Amino acid sequence: MTGSESLAAKQSFSIEEIAASMTLDDKISQMIMPAVRTWDEEALTDLSHAPKLSEALRAHQYGGIILFSQNVLDPGQVAVLVNQLQENNLENKETTAHIPYFMAADEEGGVVVRLAGGTRMTGSMAVGATGSHAVLNAEKTGQVMGEEMAAAGFNLDFAPDIDVNNNPANPVIRTRSFSDDPDTVSALGCAFAKGVSACGVIPTYKHFPGHGDTSVDSHIGTPSVEKTYEEIQSTELKPFAAAIADGADMIMTAHITFPLIDEEKTFGDGTTKGFYPATMSEKILTQILRGDMRYDGVVVTDALEMDAIRTAGLVPGEPDSAEYRINIARQVILAGADILLIPTDLNSEAAADFYDTYIGSLAEMAQSDAALAERIDESVMRILKLKEKYGILERKKGSDPEEAAAHALWVIGSDAHHDTEMEIARQAITLLKNDSVLPVAAGNQKIVFLGRQKEDAYTIEYAFRQLMEQGLISHKTRIVNLALDTTDGSDDADTVITIDYYYDAAPEENQLRYTEALQEAVKEADAVIGLTKISGLEALSEESEQYQGIARAIEDTHAAGGLFVLLSDSLPYDAARYQDADAIVLAYMGSGLDMDPTQRSDKSGNMGSYNANVVAAIDLMFGDGAFSGTLPVQIPEITETEDGSIAYSDQILYERGFSLKERPGK
After folding, report:
1. Is-catalytic flag, 302?
2. Gap between the Cα atoms of 197 and 190, Å rounded
3. Residue 661 DSSP class
4. 494-to-216, 349, 445, 491, 529 alpha-carbon distances in Å
5. In terms of Cα–Cα distance, which of 7, 91, 9, 109 is closest to 51?
6. Domains located in the chain, CATH noted
7. Residue of 161, 213, 302, 569 marked active site
């Protein structure tokens, strides 16, 4: 058998025979999924430009590759890159197995997308806001994600996120969660996965056993959930139980500790005691997930490069050293994980040398550790079974990269997908308050729209031009875009719309940008619309320039006799802070506002990943239909504590399911 032939692709061989043909190096490599964001500090977008990386990848039979935004320029380019990576793997002369890769990306939709030239969709919390349509919309979202991933050659999606967002202060999950209700998350997560898998792409449920009730981002620290097993069974574990019952193929772990459930360990320094993150916990991955919950699919870790693992001193060795990472890998495998995601970026010859050491050291350990060797064999069989189920083992040499690129350009970001996106976005927009403001009158008005940042002005202006085309505002409307320094429209227009922004993230200090020109426009306006985006409670504190910008705009608007509309474009909890607004509208997503959808790809003519939610919200605010969205989460009151800071209280201001559904002004 020559090096370019794939034993895995030959139908006469069973997966047992494939596994039997694999060396220990092959088996361990099959459990590793590196990232290739860059090579020698250059973004990796074309494998032919990085021959040393091609060589490094052929040194081992890696189980898969995960791509990130650095790897994506446009749909056609990434389709060629995926093709190159798979073809390069077939040229691996170190093995006769030639097992095709899992080609993976985090394509959740909303704030987490990698196919920048594609369809962003609305994000999970917005889907959860579509009420009785939510299950169907979750499946539609999964299908759009799946179709675009498959068109680019991906076969594995690290989505859906089925964390229950039952902590408003959660710093990392946020609108990636469908709801704070576990039953809703269960139904929508399974529906999303159904849409993805229908396209031949493997969905991954994450982050087990649940990342929703945390106050620390595991990318930079180690969150801890102080709940008993019984408590997480009724909340965090419910969506995973539903996923397993629905036939889940892959589950991703969370780097979170559970002190009331897990067993205390002695850390790497030999004296410090504590608890391993779930990723490293045999109690959580083997006893609970595989034992109690009877899951026998593939378990993939969250990225091992994250600080909750990489720098936490959990095992012997200097954190971030090869010794430390190898000892982490051993513990992760023994705990019950099958795929080690990104032990480190494969981004240089030094990283390639690291992987030689990493894989070789694990092989040496397995030769003298029967339990480790047994676990490796179990994991490899699970991986091969899953690749067989999705037809990944059948890949043969000879795919045409030009055809792959053309297909990707035709599918990704298509009008049909964007139509689905806008349909869901319109159903999601939620009206919480309306004191005779909406719909905003279309004539004889001075209207100011405040973006949070300069880049927001692109989507805002696009939305108003759409309103002009639809006849909802006059085609003579004058648009004065102070943010982008442009002016258009008739000098004698009845309606003048001024677009500006109040927050500048660039300066290290004094990020508030409430200029004299902005203040004058606000004071002269009949109606002011303010876009607000929060990722945590700190953005709503008195010290926050974002809070100061909106608070001043509300004060100036009311002092001049105008009306103020708050448009929340991320977490809806900011509604509790701005109760003095005359109207409150929720859009649930703040990404993609820097893109004007009229600027389509030169290669395909398709739109890219813009923000449909804010466009839909502006349409509805100016009378183009009824608000039909419902709150997918509880919104608690915000109170001031004894030290002067603010906190979420136990009192609920808006109940889950609340909305003003009637058409405003009708």
Report:
1. yes
2. 10
3. -
4. 50, 64, 7, 9, 18
5. 91
6. 7-53+61-401 (3.20.20.300), 429-654 (3.40.50.1700)
7. 302
3-state SS string for 185-235: HHHHHHHHHHHHHCCCCEECEEEECCCCCCCCCCCCCCCECCCCHHHHHHC
Name residues whose C-beta falls within 8 Å of residue 526's C-beta, 6 or more positions apart in sequence.
Answer: 441, 445, 446, 447, 562, 563
Tell me how far apart the 2 most distant CA atoms of the chain are, in Å: 85
Sign of CA dihedral 558, 554, 127, 284: negative
pTM for the model: 0.94
By the 10 Å C-beta count (0-12 exposed, 13-18 middle, 19+ buried), 631 is classed as buried
CA–CA distance, 500 with 2 (Å, rounded to integer) = 64
49: DSSP letter:
G
CA–CA dist 545, 552 (Å, integer)? 10
Which residues does 213 contact at the CB level (< 8 Å), separation at least 6? 164, 166, 167, 170, 225, 227, 235, 236
Neighbours of 217 (CB within 10 A): 18
Using the CB atoms, write b or e for 450-477: b if 16+ within 10 Å. bbbbbbbbbbbbbbbbbbbeeebbbeeb
Contact residues for 278 (Cβ-Cβ < 8 A; gap 6+): 208, 209, 253, 254, 255, 256, 257, 258, 284, 285
Beta strands 527-532 and 563-568: pairing type? parallel
Q: What is the mean pLDDT of each run of 10 residues along the chain (666 residues)?
A: 47 84 96 97 96 96 97 94 94 77 96 91 97 97 98 97 89 88 97 98 96 58 83 96 98 94 93 94 98 98 91 90 96 98 96 97 97 98 97 77 89 95 98 93 83 95 92 89 91 90 86 94 96 91 94 97 96 96 96 86 76 96 92 94 87 94 56
Cβ neighbour number for residue 382 with a 10 Å cutoff: 19
Q: How far is CA 211 from CA 63, 225, 302, 332, 521, in A?
A: 26, 9, 12, 18, 43
CA distances from 117 to 46, 129, 408 (A): 17, 26, 10
Helices (H), 107-155: 124-128, 134-152
